[in-house]
Amino acid sequence: LKFSLRALACALSLTAVAGFAQAEPVVIKFSHVVADSTPKGQGALLFKQLAEERLPGKVKVEVYPNSSLYGDGKEMEALLLGDVHMIAPSLAKFEQYTKKLQVFDLPFLFDNIQAVDRFQQSAEGVALLKSMEDKNITGLAYWHNGMKQLSGNKALREPKDARGQKFRVQASKVLEEQFKALRANPRKMAFAEVYQGLQTGVVNGAENPWSNIYSQKFFEVQKFITETDHGVLDYMLVTNTEFWNGLPADVRSELDKIVVEVTAKVNEQAEALNQGDKQRISEAGTSEVISLTPEQRAQWREAMRPVWGKFEGEIGADLIKAAQAANQ
Ligand code: LMR
């Protein structure tokens, strides 16, 4: 009897351990490089809120903003190693994994964010979400930030004003070529280092949507911001393919639904967030916001447009055409 009681106690405690193990929530680490107040920052927080509300005890989401866990040089590696589970790098930061996404960096390809959205929702755009699965990266959605503006310590009204200036670029060959086309000097730099780079004069200028210029305080260290809308800075929300496919089916299908809902919200709010930040930058009065005449804008377009030809082979002429078609 003594023996069997002990066996029973042992069996019970094993059951308790197994039960406890099952009840442990899946921890999803979401790392990013921008502020909580930006479209991506807001999206990450909403994802956390909805996931924890709708999957109580099953999922816990930890959001690490502002490069606090990994900067943009490391977050993709961390995703592949399984150290983080969701990231949303700008579309400019995928060139090591697929050349196709370079299409989004081509200057003056999209007339506005609505055109970007139409292309992302098209068959070609949706297919790109799956273009890196052989590398264990699954695209879950596109998130908008917005159109990029050119900032500098010199007033940039015409392409010749950029000549010889040093511009910070994301890790993108297309963006390097864009500045070379202006006879300017591109410098690749991690996002977390840009403020200091501008402040110390390592670079003289940069390109970013209003929400990043505002939340990173770039407007405090740039005398001028030209409203060029010359390109787009959007994101792909990505996860580690094996991790996502390994989630319990009920958890995964609920998270898929939440991603759809969060994406709609992010993309609906991004433009307003950017316009609000543009307003706050104007009001701060530390930098002058320059508007271009249609003729000046046409000059920038003409100066940057030769970049397309350099990447047409890698991206594919058909994909560029499909993106252009989204302008109508
Ligand atoms: C940048 O490096 O400028 C951006 O990609 C940062 C971001 O995530 O918006």
How many strands, which pairing sense, and closed or not: the largest β-sheet?
5 strands, mixed
Q: Give the terminus-to-terminus CA distance.
A: 83 Å
Q: Give the strand line-up of the largest sheet.
A: 2-1-3-10-4
- The number of strands is 11
Q: What integer is the average pLDDT?
A: 94
Category by helix and strand content: alpha/beta
Task: Identify the bound ligands.
Answer: (2S)-2-hydroxybutanedioic acid
Radius of gyration: 23 Å
User: Stretches where pLDDT falls below 50 for ≥5 residues?
Assistant: 10-21
Give an account of the 3D structure.
This protein is of the alpha/beta class and 328 residues long. Helix content is 46%, strand content 18%. It has 13 helices and eleven strands. A five-stranded mixed beta sheet has the order 2-1-3-10-4, sandwiched between helices. It has a four-stranded mixed beta sheet with strand order 8-5-9-11. Helix 2 runs antiparallel to helix 10 (249-284). It is globular and about 60 Å long. 44% of the residues are buried. The model is unreliable at 10-21 (pLDDT under 50). The site of (2S)-2-hydroxybutanedioic acid (LMR) has 10 residues, from loops.
